[in-house]
Amino acid sequence: METSTTFIGLGLVLITLLPIFLLLRGQHIKKSNINKLIKTLSNEDQKKFSIREFQNGKVVALHPEKNKLVFIDFNAQPETALYIDLQEVASCEMKSQIDSSFNQKKDLVVKVELILHLKNKTNQILKFYDFEYEKPIQTAYFRDNQLSEKWFLEINKRIV
């Protein structure tokens, strides 16, 4: 009787600890991939990018002293990674694209983007939400919109 109780106890411990272990392992792998991408993009120490945010498959990191920005989108096909010097940015605008043909009751937000107008007259587009890649998750729009508004204000503060 004691042997079967021990096996049941070990089984329950394994059932509860295994998912926690897998989640922690997955988070560690994501963090190391993000650090590798930041290091390869910036050629600087990734720890100097002190302001970081990871949400819905998007990473935004800022080097506050040098005004460098890294934007990585894991949801896009193919994956996008941009390294932007904010001293090269002339202005920044936030753009939302709405499509009313999907549902007659309310409009559907299709894209949320930050458009960085560079001083050399080119544009860098940071896609914070794209319905094409995130179709089933309309709630992701709300979070991504908040993230884009936050970084819109942060970038505008740092534009020289």
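That was protein one. Protein two is written in the same sequence-then-structure order:
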Amino acid sequence: MSDAAGDVRNAHHTVASLCADGFFDERAMRTAWHALQLRHPVLASGFDPHSGRWTIPERPEPTDLTITQPPARLSATAAGPGASVLADEAVPALLREAAARPFNLIDGPLARLLVVPLSGSRTLLQLTVEHLISDGWSLNVLMRDLAALYSAALKGEPPRLPPPADEAFPEFVRRQNIMLESGPGRAAVRALADLVSDTGPVPATPIAGFSGSRTIRYDRRDSIVRRLDAPLCQALTKRARAAGMSPPTLMHAALHDGLWRLSDAQRVATTLSTANRDAAGADSMVGWLSSKVVVTSEPGRATDLDDFLAAFHRRVLSAFDLARVPWPRLIAEMTPWALGRHTSEPYVTFNAQTVGMLRYLGPLQFENLTITTLPVSVGWHDASIATFWNEDSDGMRVTINWKTDWYQAPDMERLWTAIRDTLRRWAGTETG
């Protein structure tokens, strides 16, 4: 709301974009979409700015599919079979524009399903949800449920789905706030504040190239996408297991090493995104449950690699021990003036999604359709540098986003080179 008041149009949405090859049944998808909204009523919610509370209609009325015709001059390669749907720039441009269209935060609903029929055998699907009521885990839950509901509608059978979450996201937030105001909850907040007293809840980590500008806009950003191939990831998995940690933690440690090499600081600090799905039934809930923890390290003081990795792993585990305290609550405790505002601190964040997480939620399979996931995203992370590590069958896809008021593309290329070279060195390989 403050963005819109300041004429900053920066949609922060979670988006799943798919190319579906095969026979697409619009009627069955409409039935599935309606059922999905009834299964997850938070999608129909709005926000009361006066009370500061989410509102969900007692009997939400499902919205219809958004049917959009393709660009008139779409190339034959994009409309035909195969994975070349992005060969025509008109396709990602259409999807980005549709995903960025703002929601009515006050009245809702806060989700929509776009259908773009490219040809008789190829269809684009895009689920867009306001990030205020969703996160990466939630998006995977929604897509799993939509696929099951679509198959059920085609066959005229009941869907094969786990029971829905026992409570809606606003109720989860209410219970969480009650816990945080209790004696144990306030003690947990104070303990976490003590843990990050040296860095604060939003730890500044500027690196070489940082402009230091105090005039920054949240919507001025850029990104690069790089890959770690499968052989390198396999070698890194072996190295991580030898250190008693997960591969994403090893990659997070490499980010710290790269930041240290490109800065003058002895201590490096980043935020680490957490799923926050430990509560009973939370694995099927749709909402913004994910949070952040602050992780610090001192790469220059380690006696050797094993010493550094062991210390880094301890820091991550210590941070996770207090992860039940939401990051905004920590900000409110330590820097209340910063709550609800875009940060002016150049902090760096690490976000990982593993194949194991996707396997936990089940495969994404739409009946009679071959699905290709399309890399479409909109909006911007609040960090000065936001890194996203997405595992797939071919290795790891790494996206680095940055605020262009603070950094330029060569600065991020240097950071990526430092991270990649560190990972190669740790893996004992020069490929990847």
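The longest strand covers residues 13-22. Keep this in mind for the problem set.
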